Amino acid sequence: MPVEWKFLSARKMIYTSSVVRNIWLSGPLKRFLSISSRALIDIAAKDDELRVFIVSGEVSGDTIGARLMASLKKISPLPVRFAGIGGFVMSQHGLKSLFLMEDIAVMGIWELLPHLNKIRVKLKQTIEAALLFKPHVVVTVDSKGFSFRLLKRLKARYSQQGLDCPAHFHYVAPSFWAWKGGEAKLKGLSCFVDHLFCILPFEGEICKSNGVGATFVGHPVLEDALELNFGKQLC
Known about the structure:
This protein has helices spanning 3-16, 23-26, 28-33, 40-45, 59-75, 88-91, 109-112, 116-133, 144-160, 183-186, 203-209, 220-234, and strands at 50-56, 80-85, 137-141, 167-171, 195-198, 214-216. By secondary structure, it is an alpha/beta fold.
């Protein structure tokens, strides 16, 4: 199916879904509470809290991350403690960012080059902070360049130290499916990503067919539009 058709189909499916308003409570959070054969809450219960290390490096990711934080606090039977990187919106939900989100928000290869050394320093700082926090789960939101390097190196550090690695989730699946031969790159993600949260309906099946666990959780922008329209109808 051409990419353009996929987008049209995705938009129609999102708009007509009867569960889209509840997607933030139904999709991602069920995955948080039950991971493979282990129950995350059972593991966290030993510490009397659920520790979530969450990282976002973009404005759009700041909003998504904040929604996830708010929903997780509502549904978790344990107190939830957050650490990581985010912006203003995530700070409103209890995150004290390790440093300014803008420090890693660099787009494009030419824009990246002058900032490479600073990003390396920030990546190392983030890894050390995550290890010190001892999270039960690590969530990265979009910003795949920084996010995937972080998850990969965290996985390696836990392995080197002989420790159990926390569950790794990435929110907003990379659009490898839009590139020629790009789907093959998805297969490598399973080495350091336990589960992807997809915002387009067809992405989940593409990820699964390439060996990566994935769940369609709805598109935040379209959900906002639906909620706005729904609110107007009530007025």
